[in-house]
Design brief:
single chain; alpha/beta; Rossmann fold; 11 helices; 8 strands; 42% helix; globular
C-alpha cells in the first residue's frame, strides 16, 4: 500500500518526494507557499509514513521510482529532497515523458561527488563514522542520533519526542537499503551517461550550511545535466525544505516562472 495526498490548487501539476526518515507531510509548508501555482501530489516512500513497510527484496530507489511513475499520467514538475531528489533524477532518466522539470534539494547521490572528487571520501567517511559504528554494532538509536547530527535540521536528539526517536531508529535499515543506489549507482544513471540525456530543466538547490559533499554532488550534476540552475539557501542546512520552507518555495516559484527569473546554466552537460 502506498499513501499519497494532494496539496494546493494551482494550474501546474507537481509530484513531491520527501527525504529518508520522513513522510509526505514534511513538504507541506513548501506546498502551502506554492498552492496558487501548483497542485502537488505527495506520497510516502516505502517504509515511511503511512505506506507499507519495506520488506527488503528488490532495490528501494527503483521501487520508489516505480511508485512515482504510477502516480503520474502526464508531465509534471518533480520536487525531490535528499533521497527523494535521487528518485526524481531516476524518474527523469527512466520516464522522461513524465518530467516537465526537476527541482532537487540536495540530492544525496554520493557516487557523483566521489567519482569527480575522490579526495572527499576520507572526510565524508569521517563525518559518517559514528553512524557507521552504530550500524556495525546494531545500536540503531546511536546510529540515528549520529545520522541526524549530519543530515538533520539542527535539532538535538535529546529534545525530540521519544516516539519520534524510536521511529527514526527503527527506520535506519531504510538508509542502508538506499546505499547501493546512492554510493554504488545501482540505477546506472552515472555509469551509463544517462544524466547527460535528461531533457527536463533542473533546479539544483543546497543549503549554505550543508556538508561539502552536497556542493560536490550539485557541481557534478550541473556538469552533466544539460539545463540547470543553481541556488544556495542562506542559513539553511540539509533540511532546508522544512527549516527554510519560505525561501525554498520562493526559489521554486522563480524557477517555474522564468519572467521572475532564476538564471540557468545551459549546455554544461
Amino acid at each position: 500500500m502506498v499513501f499519497w495526498q494532494v496539496m494546493g490548487q494551482g494550474p501546474r501539476r507537481a509530484l513531491a518526494i520527501h527525504c529518508s526518515l520522513s513522510h509526505s507531510g514534511a513538504l507541506a509548508a513548501v506546498s502551502h507557499a506554492l498552492d496558487d501555482l501548483l497542485t502537488i501530489t505527495a506520497f510516502d516512500l516505502p517504509g515511511h509514513g503511512q505506506s507499507a513497510a519495506w520488506d527488503g527484496p528488490g532495490e528501494i530507489q527503483a521501487e520508489s521510482t516505480a511508485i512515482a511513475a504510477d502516480l503520474l499520467d502526464g508531465p509534471a514538475d518533480i520536487i525531490g529532497h535528499s533521497f527523494g531528489a535521487t528518485v526524481a533524477l531516476r524518474l527523469a532518466v527512466e520516464h522522461p515523458h513524465l518530467v516537465r522539470s526537476l527541482i532537487l534539494y540536495e540530492p544525496v547521490f554520493f557516487a557523483v561527488a566521489l567519482a569527480d572528487r575522490p579526495e572527499l571520501r576520507a572526510a565524508h567517511e569521517a563525518e559518517m563514522a559514528d553512524y557507521s559504528a552504530g550500524i556495525a554494532r546494531g545500536d540503531m538509536a546511536a546510529a540515528a542520533r549520529a545520522f541526524l547530527s549530519v543530515w538533520g535540521g539542527g535539532e538535538a536528539w535529546e529534545t525530540l519526542p521519544e516516539t519520534l526517536r524510536a521511529r527514526m531508529a527503527a527506520q535506519l535499515p531504510l538508509i542502508e537499503a538506499a546505499a547501493p543506489a546512492l554510493y554504488g549507482d545501482a540505477g546506472g544513471m552515472l555509469a551509463s551517461g544517462a544524466l547527460t540525456r535528461v531533457t527536463a530543466p533542473a533546479l539544483l538547490m543546497e543549503g549554505a550550511r550543508s556538508p561539502a559533499t552536497i556542493g560536490a554532488i550539485n557541481d557534478g550534476l550541473a556538469a552533466r545535466l544539460p539545463d540547470t540552475a543553481r541556488v544556495r539557501i542562506k542559513g539553511a542546512g540539509h533540511m532546508g525544505p522544512v527549516t527554510h520552507a519560505g525561501p525554498v518555495a520562493a526559489e521554486i516559484r522563480a524557477f517555474l516562472t522564468p519572467a521572475r527569473g532564476v538564471r540557468r546554466n545551459q549546455g554544461s552537460g
